[in-house]
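Researcher: We plan to redesign the surface later, but first we want a full-length starting point. Tokens attached.
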């Protein structure tokens, strides 16, 4: 396992972060504990969860695992959790208000059994709460020692920039990370979100880097997603995602190239797809999920895998998002370009 700076912070994070959304629900406790142990034994040190995963089951399982292991093991862990989404039936049991985040953070601390959460992330944008209120709460949580850093998740480019600029104006530390869906299958964040993250030295933590298992190469076009797979879930959002994947020629072509490269180098398709993501310029570390020890071990093989430049280029080309002409397509990009040499401008317009 290799390590990188966690965004613009002084904290070190592994090149693969273990996501624990399904631990305690999809994966029973005994195997979940074995997965956590194996991840740390492999050199991993960062666990990502959220207050709404399994309605709190994920955080509670992590707390029991932490309490059952020696402190010299658990003290290595960089704890990451999130707050924002609904945790109860009351009208105020959701959002980024001071009241809701305070209750969510205290609940997460209690479940995990820790004094502080190393990376506390806003799970999504809240259009109803002023950003000043949210930033004020995060600043107070930092001063109180309840969190060490904070990050954002599922934000657009303008939302992230507003948050960063407002925090600076208020004299509050800025977010260090952005957790966003990003993979060879979903690259639309490259239009504005990733450039904004790079500009602000915010590290990207891609979730679903294997596109809910689509990039594992186990699916066959024209067939069902497979019993027990993530894409076979009854969740309406997952069903929509499955339909979009199965009806998209480019996405199938991308999987074909992933499988082709995997066969060439003797790796699994998952390892190839994860290697591409982890080595993108904006990325600190993708968040891998594992329901079994076998899945974890396969994913961890990507930590040491570095693709040849030609392979990376081939994957980047086949999976490139295809925006309309404006504002993200070629014509729109030309409106924002500026070159020292006017002949270079002319050549690019040809």
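Model: Full-length starting sequence:
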């Amino acid at each position: 396992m290799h390590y990188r700076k966690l965004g613009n912070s002084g904290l070190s994070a592994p090149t693969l972060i273990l996501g624990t959304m399904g631990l305690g629900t999809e994966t029973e406790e005994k195997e979940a504990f074995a997965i956590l142990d194996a991840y740390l034994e492999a050199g991993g040190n960062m666990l990502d969860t959220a207050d709404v995963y399994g309605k709190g089951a994920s955080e509670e399982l992590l707390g029991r695992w932490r309490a059952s292991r020696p402190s010299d093991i658990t003290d290595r862990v960089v704890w990451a959790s999130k707050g924002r989404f609904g945790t109860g039936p009351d009208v105020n049991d959701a959002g980024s208000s001071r009241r809701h985040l305070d209750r969510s953070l205290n609940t997460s601390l209690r479940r995990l059994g820790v004094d502080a959460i190393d990376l506390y992330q806003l799970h999504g944008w809240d259009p109803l709460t002023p950003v000043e209120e949210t930033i004020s709460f995060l600043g107070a949580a930092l001063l109180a020692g309840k969190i060490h850093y904070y990050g954002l998740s599922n934000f657009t480019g303008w939302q992230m920039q507003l948050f960063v600029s407002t925090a600076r104006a208020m004299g509050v530390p800025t977010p260090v990370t952005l957790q966003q869906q990003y993979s060879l299958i979903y690259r639309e964040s490259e239009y504005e979100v990733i450039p904004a993250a790079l500009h602000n030295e915010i590290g990207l933590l891609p979730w679903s880097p294997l596109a809910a298992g689509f990039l594992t190469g186990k699916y066959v076009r024209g067939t069902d997603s497979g019993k027990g797979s993530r894409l076979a879930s009854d969740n309406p959002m997952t069903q929509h995602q499955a339909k979009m994947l199965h009806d998209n020629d480019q996405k199938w072509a991308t999987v074909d190239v992933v499988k082709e490269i995997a066969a060439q180098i003797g790796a699994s398709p998952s390892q190839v797809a994860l290697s591409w993501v982890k080595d993108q310029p904006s990325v600190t570390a993708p968040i891998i999920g594992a329901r079994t020890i076998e899945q974890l071990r396969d994913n961890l093989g990507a930590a040491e895998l570095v693709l040849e430049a030609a392979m990376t280029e081939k994957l980047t080309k086949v999976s490139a998002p295809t925006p309309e002409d404006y504002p993200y397509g070629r014509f729109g990009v030309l409106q924002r370009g500026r070159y020292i040499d006017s002949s270079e401008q002319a050549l690019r317009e040809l």
